[in-house]
Amino acid sequence: MPTPWWRNAVVYQVLPRSFADASGDGIGDLPGLTSKLDHLTDLGVDALWLTPCYRSPWTDAGYDITDHRKVDPALGTLADFDRMLAEAHARGLRVLLDVVPNHTSDQHEWFRRALAATPGSPERDRYVFKDGRAPDRPPSNWESRFGGSAWTRTSDGQWYLHLFAPEQPDLNWRDPRVREEFAGILRFWGDRGVDGFRIDVAAALVKDLREPLRDVVGGEGCEGLDDFAANPDHPFLDRPEVHEIYREWNRIFHEFDPPLIGVAEAWVRGDRRVRYIRPGELQQAFNFEFLRVRWRAADYRRVVAESIAAARSVGRTATWALNNHDVVRQVSVLGLPRGVDPRVWLTTNGTDPPADLELGTRRARAAIMLVLALPGSAYLYQGEELGLPEVADLPAQVLGDPKRSGKDKGRDGCRVPLPWTRGGPSFGFGGPRPWLPQPRDWGDYSVEAQRGDPDSMLELYRSALRLRREFSGNESFSWDDDRNVGDVLAFRRGEVLVLVNTGSTTAPLPAGSVLLASSPLEDGLPADTAVWLRRE
Ligand code: ISL
């Protein structure tokens, strides 16, 4: 049987609002994306994952949906979507959509009807409405990922659950109408020709709603990575019943030929994450471990070993990511001193301490060469191929992310519209005023400025992706025990020897022909540098 396309694919994440703006209104759109698809084929990726483009009041970057079967008018029409899909397919690019099953917008027809209906009504049962412990005390201590209680009180005194913003009420997955609705949504987009879905907040759909509701011990919200020790039977995260949903979805995926795929966004530890990709469930799960470690060979070594072993234990491949639309861009993170929390750093507008972008860029170049050499799928986030840093100094009045508080500046800084040209209004993004302002030096990062410059980040990505095609189908991976010590990470993929030096001194470089290096090589492998060698 041929290897399914996704096992070792490179998937490029598109945030349509910030990718390219064809209408000139400052908001990226689907025609803009279509007009720039050649950038993706030129880069050499296999697929794109489109974050939500559905009808939405846009409280949480489109993750608050009012109609899952319509395109938001600011982004285009269904016809624009079909055109984009056809053009992508014509170029051999697969297309994954984001599906958001945990919650809807509070403007969704279902929620409006639920609010208008009485407690205990079938309308309310599609969501999670409960009585408080007292008139002014919510039903449990569950916290929203965006801060504060996960419960909001309605005018008749009942409370509704939202693990994210109050504008994102959680659906009740025990209600068969919710299951049917999402089965219909998957088929709707499957029939239009998409290749699969990224599943938002995949671990949290099913809640334990038996009364009285149980409090979470330790109070941690929805991140879910660390609070299972205190909450082995967590009331809303990673409950066993959630897997039933994905078994049903997998049956729907197999109604299509070739089958669609599902990628779980599940912020749970590796040993729990692999349960989402057991045979009969989903095909892949995001692996966020690289976002939690910071430039130390020993940590990368552990993450690589654990992730590969976990995926193999269920016959799947691992996935890797250095960036996404929820986290501070890696170029900035890797330019911060160890111990500085990037989110805390953001609250200082990136001033305390300043990020060393030269160092961060050098390390990010090496990091992507590590990622692209590993077996499994790599998920790239738009703009990382340009080496964009976090825009840490966005003025308060332009910030729109609901995940904001005194302690958190939010995620806008990694969502600033892309620069395509050296100059011109919005550096080729589109109209004169993009929805988030671009820094003045953005033109230096543009596709136009980097294309053809052998030292640029863009050309490094292009070269790495081209070379990767030669070995990516071969899933073999083995550590090079002699060299994989201390600050040097060393492993083999088929004939290719991969070395990454995270230390501060030059390491020995074995004989072999250099396929690619992240920085110029000296008499050895310099600090903060990666190399791919072919052994002679
Ligand atoms: O944003 C995070 C860390 O900064 C995550 O904890 C995030 O809240 C979690 O991964 C869920 O994210 C997804 O669903 C959210 C949406 O805001 C995110 O953009 C999306 O990736 C709610 O739909």
Automatic annotation (TrEMBL):
Instruction: Give the SUPFAM superfamilies listed for this entry.
Output: (Trans)glycosidases
State the InterPro entries in the record. Answer: GH, GH13_cat_dom, O16G_dom_2
Show the CDD domains listed in the entry. AmyAc_OligoGlu_TS (cd11332)
Q: Where is the Glycosyl hydrolase family 13 catalytic domain?
A: 13-415
List, in alphabetical order, the Gene Ontology terms for molecular function in this entry: hydrolase activity
Q: Which domain of life is it from?
A: Bacteria
Transcription found in the keyword field: no
Show the coiled coil region(s).
Answer: none
Q: Which UniProt keywords apply?
A: Hydrolase
Task: Fetch the PANTHER family from UniProt.
Answer: ALPHA-AMYLASE FAMILY MEMBER, NEUTRAL AND BASIC AMINO ACID TRANSPORT PROTEIN RBAT
Q: Which family does it belong to?
A: Belongs to the glycosyl hydrolase 13 family.
Q: What is this protein called?
A: Glycoside hydrolase family 13 protein
Query: What species does this protein belong to?
Result: Saccharopolyspora oryzae
